[in-house]
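Lab notebook: predicted structure, single chain.

Context: the supervisor wants predicted structures on file for every construct in the current expression panel, including those that have not yet been purified. This is the next one on the list. No modifications to the sequence; it matches the entry in the shared construct table.
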Amino acid sequence: MRFVDRTEAGRLLARRLEHLRGRDVVVLGLAPGGMPVAREVARHLGAALDVLVVRALGVPWQPELAFGAVGEQGMRVLDDDVIRHVALAAEDQRAVERAERAEVARLTRRYRGERAPEPVAGRTVVVTDEGMADGVTASAACRAVRARGAVHVLLAVPVAPERALARLRPVADQVVCLQPLRHLGSVGAWYRSFPRVEDDTVPGPPARPLREPGTPAAADAPTAPPGTARGDARAEAGAVEKDVPAGPVRLRARLTVPDAAYGLVVLAHGDCVGGATACDCPGHRRVAALLVRAGLGTLLLDLVTRDEARDRHLPFDIVLLARRLRAATRWARDETRLPVAYFGSGTAAAAALEAVALDPGIRAVVGCGGRPDLARPATLAAVHVPTLLAVGARDTRILCLNRLAADWMHCEHRVAVLPGAGSVPEDPAARDEVARLAGEWVTAHLGAARGTPVG
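Prediction complete. Output recorded below exactly as produced.
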């Protein structure tokens, strides 16, 4: 089947998304070619419409081959397989990225001007494009939207190769493609009319949702954007204090499970300096709130009781902390029936790795300025789940220790260095960035468990 033009493709795509009519939906068109498609989808669904600027990073001597993508708000996704295959030098990567980031900034100003992006936190988001060749740009777009707090991300395209659709399964909750193909050729070949969409012909997204006559408004009340006190308060509204059994002790915890949560992050804390617990700490609660707004449930957990905090050696008993974390995980699974990921700060980062080495059910681990080096080398080598270690660039000692731990790992892992940041737990800006990275990491690695349908 060939589409008459982008407008017809948008109308046909909208029919496949009829189940979203009347819900609180935002349709984002990948500029420029995806905007005519997105406009038709938004018009049919009575949904809010906005633009999403993402640029592919092309190999300099083969521009049609993308080694990654960049987008708004500093988003970046790299394809390490392509980079290795073409032996792309770091300086060439940086040169291409600088040029494309400048283009992202220009296009964002052109399409949106001074208007703020349509809020997506807590909402269903449909990402649309005119078609998809390799999935790199669409994957980056879905990750960016998830990081902004969308609770359900659906990618909808008229035409795409099957291998590219498979790439989207870990990052989108659902993928809808009218025409999945074994061999695509080019996107334009599947349209009878496929003129170039120039910057000045892209219709700017409206400030209010587009609605057909008689279509009820889904939710006109403004949604608090990420990073606001109101947003944090909303994310914490459903928090419940719990005493979690862990052998002879009961651990203080704070459980929050938003509607339609697709996973649970256990945020473990192993040190109560001065009696300050994770459940009371504004910084830890802030990270939990940001993850909740990304559609994840959270269990903010103290692995050491207030009475035990007097013993300065106990937080370094990694085996004990890991045992307690595993007990709390069993409780959390029974309570929520959700797949679990770990987020560990301080010595709890090592405890999380010790616990996950014995638990095949954990989906991902994030360390926040922690001490993963305190886990045993044999444990680090046995860790089987994707692990992200985030450390401030100026916290040189902890950075060295995290890299030392990473050297022992054979699983998928990454050491994320935060430029200009010191101790992450004490730096509010760094905490927010770690929460964003954690949301992306956990989302990407919980996705395979969510049974993403295609078609």
